């Protein structure tokens, strides 16, 4: 791909009965300088465009292009298993959804796409089809045979997670020295490679209130978190913490770090989503390709109405484009 062509972004529509197809055609209506390649059913997009009242020109994917008019969308057709009914996911479409993800991942690894942007899917519908599935992140990690970390990022804040979708009762046992060191190595490396931070500063939250208060409110900080951080500091990483979660996000603290590692899902994400819900992007760190996503669900109650807000998908596309541009500049030796 030469510098005169637009970056090829694979975009998956997610759950056919959800809001994803409508968000995708709204993304296509923007003037973003990208060659969007929708990996989904062409007819699904046609119906979504009609529901949104948008004139979308669907074109078979024919490789690199130098320009794109708003409303143009290239398509790699992956047929549905059954016609969609907005708001009612059908397990008959589970294999369609997985096929779109496989094409996006394989295409990125083969160099056909510069990045992949994903709309939300319905995990329960895939599981109801008898296919074990826990989410985009795990699917891409398995497909690429990569060790990954979830990051949620807005223009003001980046949050990564030591554990993701676990019951709160299972979190303490999942917080081990090896886990913390593995996650921080990935986050540190990706902040350098993808975000161009030569010396990333990472704040690490404690597990317990007041970061354990010297062992009086729990010993995980003393026995597990602090030894892991000390070992990594000895390897040159700039790590703050463990910090009490209740004060880690005040403005004075935010100036001291580039990203936060939280111990569990709801420890930090409410802060991020309360201030930047429509601008928050989900990234998968550790993959051999760039993957961004919306940070919301399938919105089944809105599906089919044409009233879905595309802000998060647009933010995900913009972040993917920024990361692609940074990678291209680095490959050309441009600081």
Commentary on this structure:
The protein has helices at 20-28, 42-52, 94-109, 123-128, 136-144, 171-174, 177-193, 220-233, 251-254, 265-276, 311-331, and strands at 8-12, 35-40, 57-60, 72-77, 115-118, 149-153, 158-161, 201-205, 238-243, 259-262, 281-285, 290-294. The chain has 335 residues and is of the alpha/beta class. The two termini are 20 Å apart. A twelve-stranded mixed sheet has the order 3-4-2-1-5-12-11-6-7-10-8-9. Helix 3 packs across helix 5 (136-144). 37% of the residues lie in helices and 18% in strands. The chain has two domains: 1-146 and 287-335, 3-Layer(aba) Sandwich (Isopropylmalate Dehydrogenase); 148-286, Isopropylmalate Dehydrogenase (3-Layer(aba) Sandwich).
Brief overview, please?
The chain is of the alpha/beta class and 335 residues long. It has eleven helices and twelve strands.
Oligomer: single chain
Nearest-integer average pLDDT: 94
Strand content: 15-25%
- Biggest beta-sheet profile: 12 strands, mixed
So, the CATH homologous superfamily of the largest domain?
Answer: Isopropylmalate Dehydrogenase
Rounded to an integer in angstroms, the radius of gyration calculated over CA atoms is: 21 Å
Q: What structural class results from the helix and strand content?
A: alpha/beta
Shape: globular
CATH architecture of the largest domain: 3-Layer(aba) Sandwich
| Strand arrangement, major sheet | 3-4-2-1-5-12-11-6-7-10-8-9
What is the total tally of β strands? 12
The CATH class name of the largest domain reads: Alpha Beta
Annotation field: number of helices: 11
Low-confidence stretches: none
CATH topology of the largest domain: Isopropylmalate Dehydrogenase
Count structural domains: 2
């Amino acid at each position: 791909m030469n510098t005169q062509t637009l970056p090829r972004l694979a975009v998956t529509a997610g759950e056919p009965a959800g809001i994803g197809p409508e968000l995708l055609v709204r993304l296509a209506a923007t003037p973003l300088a990208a060659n969007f390649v929708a990996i989904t059913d062409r007819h699904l997009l046609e119906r979504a465009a009609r529901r949104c009242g948008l004139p979308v020109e669907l074109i078979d994917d024919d490789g690199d292009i130098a320009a794109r008019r708003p409303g143009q969308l290239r398509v790699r057709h992956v047929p549905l298993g059954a016609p969609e009914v907005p708001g009612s996911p059908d397990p008959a479409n589970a294999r369609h959804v997985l096929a779109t993800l496989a094409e996006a991942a394989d295409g990125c690894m083969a160099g056909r796409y510069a990045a992949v942007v994903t709309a939300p899917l319905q995990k329960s519908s895939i599981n109801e089809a008898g296919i074990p599935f826990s989410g985009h992140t795990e699917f891409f990690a398995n497909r690429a045979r990569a060790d990954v970390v979830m990051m949620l990022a807005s223009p003001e804040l980046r949050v990564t997670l030591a554990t993701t979708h676990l019951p709160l009762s299972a979190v303490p046992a999942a917080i081990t020295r090896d886990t913390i060191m593995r996650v921080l190595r990935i986050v540190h490396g990706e902040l350098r490679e993808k975000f161009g931070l030569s010396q990333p500063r990472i704040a690490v939250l404690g597990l317990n209130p007041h970061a354990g208060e010297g062992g009086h409110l729990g010993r995980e900080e003393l026995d597990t978190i602090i030894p892991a951080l000390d070992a990594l500091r000895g390897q040159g990483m700039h790590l703050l913490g463990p910090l009490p979660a209740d004060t880690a996000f005040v403005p004075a603290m935010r100036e001291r770090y580039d990203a936060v590692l939280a111990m569990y899902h709801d420890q930090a994400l409410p802060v991020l989503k309360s201030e930047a819900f429509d601008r928050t992007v989900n990234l998968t760190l550790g993959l051999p390709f760039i993957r961004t996503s919306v940070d919301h669900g399938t919105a089944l109650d809105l599906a089919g109405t044409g009233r879905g807000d595309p802000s998060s998908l647009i933010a995900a596309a913009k972040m993917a484009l920024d990361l692609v541009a940074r990678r291209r500049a680095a490959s050309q030796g441009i600081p």
